[in-house]
Design goal:
Elements (H helix, E strand, L loop, with lengths): L6 H23 L4 E6 L2 E5 L4 E6 L6 E2 L4 E5 L2 H50 L5 H48 L1 E3 L4 E6 L6 E2 L4 E6 L3 E9 L11 E7 L5 E11 L4 E2 L13 E10 L10 E6 L3
Antiparallel strand pairs: 1-10, 1-15, 2-9, 3-5, 3-8, 4-7, 5-6, 7-9, 10-14, 11-12, 11-15, 12-14, 13-14
Length: 304
Amino acid sequence: MSVLMPPHRVLTGAALAASLSLLASCTKATPADAYGNFEAEEVVVAAETAGQLQSFAPTEGQTLSVREVVAQLDTIQIALERQQLAAQRASLVAHRGEVQEQLRTVETQHAIAQRTRARIDLLFAKQAATAQQRDQTERDERASMGQVTASRLSITRVAADIAAIDARLAAVSDRLRRTSIANPVGGTVLATYARAGEMIQPGQPLYRIASLDTLTLRAYVTGAQLPTVKLGQAVDVHIEGSADSLQRWRGTVSWVSARAEFTPTPVQTREARSDLVYAIKVRVANPQGVLKIGMPADITWQAP
């Protein structure tokens, strides 16, 4: 014997299924205001000086903190250059001391020559000294003055040489400091371009990093939609979820392009016939790491 279900229950279940199907189709059919893909603000970290890469810690997918030391270049040659410059500076400082002592000696001699000339001039005025004696004392005074001037110029030159060495020492010390590579921004390593043991040149990229806590959705709107877009505007961002459902996120418009461009090939817009569109950026918080770089999403404007 078969058991028949009550007719009204069968109708109710069918109606409920039809209603859910209609609701799902409406949700999928609801047009979006803009479409785009997620991207991150990436930073490419490069070497600032040349040398052999002794250690290199970053790996793809690794999370690094700000100012964390992640790589170390060889410092032997730079340290030897710094030691050589320090020895040159010490030699110049010693030479400056010798010239200063020499200056004190010739200044004393010049003072004696001045007194001798003054005494001979007085005696010559009283006809107690000859013209030859007067000329000799004048020559001695001028010669001693020339020695004083030369010693002072030598001190100036030595001081300039010391200043030049100090500048070179500062440059070498800066190069030595730059052999330790610190991570500039906190985030996740997206790609690496070097390995320990390689010779590195200044400006050579080492790795690429980006903070994934907040992603940027680059989307495109038509000229007709542009007046409705404002900086700081809150929007709804939708991504594909499980079972063809849409997950909704909240975002904020952070940038609107001032120039129109042709519709990019992989981007769709509400008005497919529009050739020119404007790029916008929407910042979306991603604390759980659900959003990924390159993931497609669409945007709808929130009702005021």
